[in-house]
Amino acid sequence: MRVSKVLSLIVLIALAALSAGAQAPSIPELKGKNLEITIWTHEDANRAAIEKRYIEEFKAANPSLTITYTTFPSGKIAETMATAFAANQGPDIFNLTIPTAYPYIGNGRVAPVDYKALGLKNAADLVDNYLPNMLDPVTQDGEIYGLPLEITNMALYVNRKMLRDAGLDPDKDAPRTWEDVLALSEKLVKRNGQIITRRGFDFRYDGRLTTWLPMVQQLGGELISKDGKTAIIGDEAWLKTLQFFKDMGPGGKNLASPTYTAARTQFDLNKDEVAMSISGLYQEARMRTANPAFFASKDWMVVSLPQWKDAKKRVTAHYSGHYYMVNAQSSKLEQYAAWCLVGYMLSHGEEYLEKVAIVQPTKALLNSPTYKAMPYSDVFAKDFETASIVYLGKLSSRIDALLKTAFESVMVGGVEPKKALETLKAAANAALAEAD
Question: Which of 248, 144, 261, 259 lies closest to 201, judged by CA?
């Protein structure tokens, strides 16, 4: 297993020992002291299986250490975390999507990375092991406040067989534009009355900042002005994108809706329910677990995020990510042990990729044969070359909620795009004004 320099010296020694069947490294600083470390993370059965094993290895080497590992549904963890921190009862180690986690850094809730625990001298040693800018989202005033568990960008999964069955050539007719997506959806949709039994395409309804905003930006619109004082720039771009959602929704051509099961889940099952969905590279591991025969077949493919025919610039999906962080309210010894544990878990970058298909953005991993062997990893890598980090700021969560209201109001609420845009613009600019 290739290991990046980001690992602590202790972890490097441990990995060598592991290859010979030995246990994980011990923490001399514990000196037999009883200590409990809590970890909260989002649900992922494939990831939980290997992380629980890493934890058991770590506990075996540190018998006085108790580690409690708890997972939460992706849609619930942010609320649960906010409630816990408000009561000063947050876990020692946690991860959230970076837009949600970012305010915790500014609010003093996150402890800076302990470089000693990782066997490093300083931040520069750590940064050197990652692709450019990958630690920027968790860096403030020269300190780094998290280590990447995964960096995710999105692309379009396409069921080749469903396209062939509709008389299409997947290699030629797979969508390249949003107009293609709409046209293909009309050809592929199946209904029982008004109930959709097969969607040609459906959105990620948690993808507002990662995949919906790029649709606006392809047309020249923006979320926030460069000076940070004005929100929702470029009415024409926003209106066209909102109209696309309206056309796709039950009040339009009735092709998609947030009321149905997540498209990426039904895509994996391959039961003639979804032909196209948006997800990250990690979806391959979920597909392999849920439907190994489909994963091993030639009946699916991944293509780049679509662009508008009249796009003013190419904008691929914004990348987001989850960073493991440590609670600043934990004791110094708890923080040290926590960073040692995080370092040990993240030392298994290639296994995370092989078993979970999540990408730690280290130079070593992205140049490894393991990464290059992942189906369609080249598509994600190509899109990543021009991708930008998802919008970050103290208003990330609030802006995201306003986008949800605006887009879903036109899609399922019968609101006209012009009215939805007026409401969104007023609310977003009021939020910016309040934050000043």
Answer: 248
- Distance separating alpha carbons of residues 348 and 352, to the nearest angstrom: 6
Compute the chain's Rg from CA coordinates.
23
Distance CA 327, CA 183 (A): 49
| Three-state DSSP class for residue 308 | coil
Among 75, 119, 71, 130, which Cα is nearest to 97's? Answer: 75
**Pairing relationship of beta strands 35-42 and 93-94 according to DSSP bridges:** parallel
Contacts 24+ apart (CB under 8 A), 158-164: 158/275, 158/276, 158/300, 158/301, 158/302, 158/303, 159/267, 159/270, 159/274, 159/275, 159/276, 159/299, 159/300, 160/298, 160/299, 160/300, 160/301, 161/299, 162/188, 162/198, 162/272, 162/275, 163/188, 163/275
What percent helix, strand, coil does the chain show, rounded to 5? 45, 15, 35
Residue 161: Cβ within 10 Å count: 17
Residue 276, by phi and psi: left (phi above 0), alpha (psi -120 to 50) or beta?
Answer: beta
What six digits make up the tokens of 404? 């949800």
Task: Check residue 23 and give its pLDDT.
Answer: 60
pLDDT at 11: 38
* DSSP codes, 379-408: HHHHHHHT--BPP-STTHHHHHHHHHHHHH
**Distance from C-alpha of 44 to C-alpha of 286, rounded to nearest angstrom:** 9
Q: How far apart are CA 132 and CA 146, in angstroms?
A: 16
Q: Which amino acid is at 114?
A: D
Distance CA 98, CA 389 (A): 10
Helix (H) or strand (E) holding 329: none
The label of the residue with tokens 């992942």 reads 374
Q: How many helices (H) and strands (E) does the chain have?
A: 20, 14
pLDDT 10s digits, 138-168:
999 989 999 999 999 999 999 999 999 999 9
Per the DSSP assignment, residues forming a β-bridge with 67 are 37
